[in-house]
Amino acid sequence: MRTAIILTGIVVAAFNLRPGVTGLSPLLEAMGEEIRLGGGFLAVIGMLPPLLFGLCGFAAPRLIARFSAVTITLTATAMIAVGLGVRALVSDPSAFLLLSVLALAGMGIGNVVLPPIVKAYFPDRVASVSTLHVGLLQLGTFVPPLVAVPLANALSWRGSLLVWAGTAVVAVAVWIVITVLRPAPRTTVSATAVGGRELRRLLSTPRAWALMTMTGMTSFNNFILFTWLPPLLTRAGFDSAFAGAMLALVTAIPLVLGFVLPALAVRLRSAASIVIAFCLSLAAGYLGLWLAPQAAPVLWTVLLGIGISTFPLALTLITLRSRGPEASAALSGFVQGGGYLLAATGPLLFGLLVDSGPGLGAAFALVLASVVVKLAVTVPATRPGHI
């Protein structure tokens, strides 16, 4: 009973950590017919996800220490449900942004709290349960942009957004049950370690900084592609339907690999070879998209999708490289907090460079430089042993 309810909780919570992000962008044109969406709105809504994920990454470990991982997970899912549900009903851009902040804060807290829950309840099955966690997170990234427009055609754009509020309500219901039953974890989280000592130790640990930088550079490119892949393809002459399909494809590849990489990470002494290969794939995809976008757009998209698939690997490494659930909570907060703050600059800088004098050349130089930084930290970030 304990195993089944916690596994169900991990599944429904993980799925709801991305639909509020990727299910929105395909609907912005339809929304603009009812709500005035100026350039400022579009810039802010693009930066909010990684910014909130980063800030909540640093705050979440202290919240877990004070209120328990189960209570915080219930609160996070409730924030997601309320934020997504109410924002689908408003017509004021400012209110929409404020409610998005509420929902994204819940997602940011959820990002951090699930790895220590896996560590606490399944210490002897970290690989398999991490595969489930990461796979469902990637599924929640891939499905929404694929079905957002068909749902809007059937239900209106508000109805399309409300679908993801509905899935979040399911997660709230499951975590209410878990909160009432309070199944005992196999190991416990130490409030002192999570809230202070453990986090301070990570700040002086080069390997923790390396893992945070590797994760941050992955998310940096993730959010650039989420924002800019369709516009880059339409600028190259492709129609918007094809561009949307390529966005779904670039999110589908990490979904598929997310079911494989955690098990590989456990079996391999070091995951450095995987990360290096994926970095080279990312660089090749960017070069193709820049220099010959019409030659093989599907190939470039596949290479880019492989390249950003180190994110599920990084989530697994957080769990594998920590000694216990308290260390996992602190490492998860540090890595995801700092990583997402790095990522928040990606879409903005890329967009500024695209519209500047140097144009696409400077923008692609930026993302290629991020790949070099990621390569530089790969070996220490993936080194075997606990951080």
Describe the fold and architecture.
InterPro entries: MFS, MFS_Cyanate_Porter, MFS_dom, MFS_trans_sf. Keywords: Membrane, Transmembrane, Transmembrane helix. This is MFS transporter. It is found in: Cell membrane. This protein has one domain: Growth Hormone, Chain: A, CATH 1.20.1250. The chain is globular and about 55 Å long. The chain has 17 helices and no strands. About 2% of the residues have low confidence. The protein is mainly alpha-helical and 387 residues long.
Blueprint of the fold:
Elements: H1 2-15, H2 19-22, H3 28-31, H4 39-67, H5 69-87, H6 93-121, H7 126-155, H8 157-181, H9 191-203, H10 206-235, H11 240-258, H12 261-267, H13 272-291, H14 297-307, H15 310-320, H16 325-354, H17 360-382
Helix pairs in contact: 1-6, 1-7, 1-8, 4-5, 4-6, 4-9, 4-16, 5-6, 5-8, 6-7, 6-15, 6-16, 7-8, 7-11, 7-12, 7-15, 9-16, 10-11, 10-15, 10-16, 10-17, 11-14, 12-15, 13-14, 13-17, 16-17
**Total domains:** 1
Average per-residue pLDDT, rounded, comes to 84
* CATH-defined topology: Growth Hormone, Chain: A
N-to-C series of helices and strands: HHHHHHHHHHHHHHHHH
Strand content: under 5%
Shape, per Cα inertia axes: globular
Given as residue ranges, the uncertain stretches (5+ residues, pLDDT < 50) are 189-195
How far is it from the N-terminal to the C-terminal residue, by CA?
Answer: 33 Å
- What's the helical proportion of residues? over 70%
- Multimeric organization: single chain
Largest sheet: none
Could you say which structural class the secondary elements and strand pairing correspond to? Answer: mainly alpha
Number of distinct helices = 17
CATH superfamily: MFS general substrate transporter like domains
Q: Which class in CATH terms? A: Mainly Alpha
Counted beta strands: 0
CATH architecture: Up-down Bundle
Rg, Cα atoms, Å: 20 Å
